[in-house]
Design brief:
The chain has 15 helices and 14 strands. The strands form 4 sheets. The protein has a 6-stranded mixed sheet with strand order 2-1-10-11-7-6, with no helix packed on it. The chain has helices at residues 4-13, 35-48, 73-88, 98-110, 113-116, 122-136, 270-279, 282-311, 318-344, 357-382, 401-407, 415-429, 432-443, 448-458, 461-472; strands at residues 17-20, 23-24, 55-58, 61-64, 140-143, 166-171, 174-181, 192-195, 210-215, 221-225, 250-260, 264-267, 347-349, 352-354. It is of the alpha+beta class. The protein folds into 2 domains: 4-278, Butyryl-CoA Dehydrogenase, subunit A, domain 2 (Beta Barrel), CATH 2.40.110; 281-463, Butyryl-CoA Dehydrogenase, subunit A, domain 3 (Up-down Bundle).
Length: 475
């Protein structure tokens, strides 16, 4: 099991090429924009050590359950506890914690025959990398979405040859990759990057049909993160979430990056690149993690709502209870039911027990709609309380302390505690960090119509047809 100090030392000293505002960062682990989330990851590595309920044993060695290939509902329950562990450390605000892409690599390795179908050796590469990643508890991020240059054209027909990541040359010892991917969430603080395409490739895109793993410190690999929200957070009191839980999103640029053959999973195979996430079950296993994480986030938000209602003395008022129940509690309970149903009624694919795609896909589709209503409900509960909140310094300055302390108190909380609660809520629903959170929840999986098509394909339409036929045949 990995220690947090080792993780921080490794990502801070491996020479990765992260460029912020045009300047290369010397150490992401200690940089004000990345140190907060990196410290959260480190603390979660540490707190997982010795917790048997989120680990499993194989051949006498204990591993994190993020690498557990689920063979039964019991295994899925173990993974559920593991995902909650990682989600609770950031209150569900960090979506691409190590357990997300670990789910993908685990499914790949458990279904290695999918990769062996293309050519002998690629399945070996997947399993070998999985074993290394599991032994070292690597933090793997991924970049699987191409730049939004011209979405009307396939990869090979873009304005330039290698806007999408593609194979420039093949060597005896590996391949050279050039191009870019649009979003590498958490890539700046990860160990490895999984690079492929979730956007379906077309005939003629063979040079772009690849799946590879690359150390984030690989020569030629550059990360261009957006401005971290922590760098503009004036204090932890004023921005309690922005200052600690911004996992960062980066443009991933590959300037002729060499990838050895042992790190190649798919090579010039359009059909397999398009199918890898779905045939292995990696897509549903990763989205299962995402739903568990989102459930923790909704629990956190519900806690903010009820504590504010308590503070203002309104939680016993029937209309407020109806609002909290219908707009918040109902969504939380429904999501819990979806997650539990997914793990207790798995789909067996060979010997792999996948969370039910029927429920996982439905959860992802509904989540995108629910999060908008959920954020609106939090705004409704707070009302004008979000407006003109004092800063942390206002409680200390002699000129303002008395007025701030008197007029910002609530029925049950002194002014500082009430404002602290409101600041946390505002950082979830109203700041730039909050805007990114909302956008992430709406698009981390796919556009709405794509998510809804997954629901259509995984739903049992035959039962409904049989009911109708039975009725029509009865008269």
């Amino acid at each position: 099991m990995r220690h947090g100090a080792d993780y921080l030392a490794e990502i801070g000293s491996d020479g990765r090429h992260v460029l912020l505002d045009g300047e290369r960062l010397a150490n992401v682990a200690s940089h004000p924009g990345f140190g907060g989330p990196a410290s959260v990851i480190a603390s979660l590595y540490d707190s997982a050590i010795g917790k048997d309920d989120i680990a499993y044993e194989e051949d006498g060695t204990a591993y994190s359950a993020m690498w557990l290939p689920p063979r039964s509902p019991r295994d899925l329950a173990t993974r559920h506890r593991l995902h909650r562990h990682w989600a609770e450390g950031s209150f569900g605000l960090m979506g691409r914690t190590p357990d997300h892409v670990a789910s993908i690599i685990t499914a790949f390795a458990a279904m290695r025959h999918v990769f062996d179908r293309a050519a002998t050796g690629y399945g070996d590469n997947v399993v070998s990398f999985y074993n290394q990643a599991r032994a070292k508890d690597w933090y793997i991020s991924y970049a699987i979405t191409p730049p939004q240059v011209d979405r009307s054209k396939p990869a090979h027909d873009q304005p330039e040859e290698f806007l999408y990541p593609g194979i420039v040359t093949e060597r005896d010892d590996g391949i050279v990759v050039r191009g870019a991917q649009m979003i590498g969430t958490s890539a700046a603080i990860a160990d490895y990057l999984f690079l492929s395409s979730i956007v379906p490739l077309q005939p003629g895109d063979e040079a772009y049909a690849l799946s590879v793993v690359i150390p984030v410190s690989a020569p030629g690999l550059r990360l261009y993160p957006r401005r971290p929200y922590a760098t503009v957070a004036t204090s932890e009191f004023d921005y309690p979430l922005s200052s600690r839980f911004d996992e960062s999103d980066s443009l991933v640029v590959l300037r002729d990056v060499f990838v050895p053959w042992e790190h190649v999973f798919v090579y010039r195979d359009i059909q397999l690149v398009n199918a890898q996430f779905y045939e292995t079950g990696a897509h549903v296993l990763a989205n299962y993690q995402a739903l568990v994480r989102f459930a923790v986030k909704m629990e956190f938000a519900s806690g903010l709502a009820i504590k504010l209602a308590d503070a203002h003395g309104i939680s016993a008022i029937p209309p407020v209870q109806a609002q909290l129940g219908g707009d918040i509690a109902a969504y939380c309970a429904a999501l819990d039911a979806i997650v539990i149903a997914a793990e207790t009624r798995p789909l067996m694919r060979r010997k792999l027990a996948l969370p039910s795609p029927k429920f996982v896909n439905a959860g992802v589709s509904l989540q995108r709609r629910w999060v908008v209503e959920f954020m609106r409900a939090l705004r409704e509960i707070a009302g004008g309380g979000f407006i003109a909140m004092p800063s942390a310094a206002s409680f200390e300055a002699p000129e303002t302390a008395d007025d701030v302390g008197r007029y910002y108190q609530s029925a049950t909380l002194p002014a500082r505690e009430r404002v602290k609660l409101l600041k946390a809520m505002w950082d979830l629903v109203g700041t730039e960090f909050a805007g990114r959170q909302l956008q992430y929840e709406m698009f981390y999986s796919a556009a709405q119509h794509i998510a809804d098509r997954h629901v259509f394909r995984s739903f049992d339409w035959e039962t409904g047809r049989e009911h109708v036929d039975r009725l029509l045949d009865s008269y």
